[in-house]
Amino acid sequence: EAGVTQSPTHLIKTRGQQATLRCSPISGHTSVYWYQQALGLGLQFLLWYDEGEERNRGNFPPRFSGRQFPNYSSELNVNALELEDSALYLCASSSEGQGTTDTQYFGPGTRLTVL
Amino acid sequence: GDSVTQMEGPVTLSEEAFLTINCTYTATGYPSLFWYVQYPGEGLQLLLKATKADDKGSNKGFEATYRKETTSFHLEKGSVQVSDSAVYFCALSDRTNAGKSTFGDGTTLTVKP
After folding, report:
1. Percentage of residues in chain A having pLDDT higher than 70
2. Per the CB < 8 Å rule, is A42 touching B103?
3. Under an 8 Å CB criterion, which residues of A touch B?
């Protein structure tokens, strides 16, 4: 069974640009979660999508947005990039859709560097 | 808000030593608790979980018991191996903030032969 996949592996952008990160969940999983792992800040919850709807959002500005497609894959968009957006962005998926007790399966991440 | 506090690392042990990594939490609701492991060069993977008080999660010789009275979920292993060297993250997911997992800062474990 293929795991969660993310693309690209690395992304380099300049300040003010937009970044688009992609995630494909494990087959059969309907929930996708996004996290930011910045140096010194640990893992921070960004977004949770389930069945195409945004179910919950972490404490991030509106320039962090995303969507989930009918095939349950997901996109994270970061507009007006700032230097502090440089981080590893992790995507996870789950099958239960409960959001709380679900086991989340993580992808390898996308390393975003903002110059 | 919710928070998770893990014992500070790094932790260095000899092979076959006993491991404890402390984890305590603060939650507004009744959380589910998780331990994740990140091996060198790999992504996060679930090690074990517990969804209600007094539940014990276990996997690969690791155990953790959900203690509501002490708000703790300490990770233990009786005899560590070199292959257990990794970063361990304690996390919680609270029903009052569904979908959001709150993670501790991670504890780096190095096991020497």
Report:
1. 96
2. yes
3. 4, 31, 33, 35, 42-43, 45, 48, 50, 55-56, 58, 90, 92, 98-109
